[in-house]
Amino acid sequence: MVVRLWKDGFTVNDEEFRSYSIPENQDFLDAIKRGELPAEWESRAEEEELEISVEDLTEENYVPRKKAFHPFSGRGYRLGRIADVQDFVARSQRSCPPFILTTSRPFRDLNDKELNLEEADLANAVIVQRPLNTQAPFGHS
Fold first, then answer.
1. Nearest to residue 28, comparing CAs of 12, 49, 45, 14?
2. Phi, then psi, of 58 in degrees rounded to 5
3. Are 1 and 50 in contact (CB under 8 A)?
4. Euclidean distance between CA atoms 75 and 34, whole angstroms
5. Contacts of 122 (CB under 8 A, 6+ apart)
6. SS3 for 76?
């Protein structure tokens, strides 16, 4: 846990800026100064050992850091069969008109839902959802 002390407030682990003028924030800092664990960290400390460092930047004004880009922050799903992919796509949409899954170039309909992704030669492949009863893109079929 990294507590950075700025001219008019502090941050914990580069999260939201906390002003010194708010009583709860002052209680937090008073606990740190006494060498005690702040009340808001007590439940966390029961689960893991906390290492706390304090950086004195009180000569500087707080400037928000740019948020780190995380390209994927959602849950992961293990999709082993083409049927799993089909079900996942259908569940991910509010209203789901009939569709078919295809590969992108070369275009190939993925009809055999019992194959797993490896058996269907889809490892590292792009899978496209295409509404049923439409023309293949670019006039291919």
1. 12
2. -65, -10
3. yes
4. 40
5. 82, 103, 110
6. coil
Number of H helices, E strands in the chain: 3, 7
Positive/negative CA dihedral, 53, 49, 13, 17: negative
Averaged pLDDT score across all residues of the chain: 84
pLDDT digits over 73-99, tens only?
667 666 778 888 888 888 887 777 888
Q: What is the residue extent of each domain of the chain?
A: 2-56, 82-131
Those residues with Cβ within 8 angstroms of residue 51's Cβ, 6 or more apart along the chain or in another chain:
1
Percent of the chain with pLDDT over 70: 87
pLDDT, tens digit, for every residue of 37-73?
898 888 887 888 888 899 999 999 999 877 777 666 6
Residue 22 one-letter amino acid: I
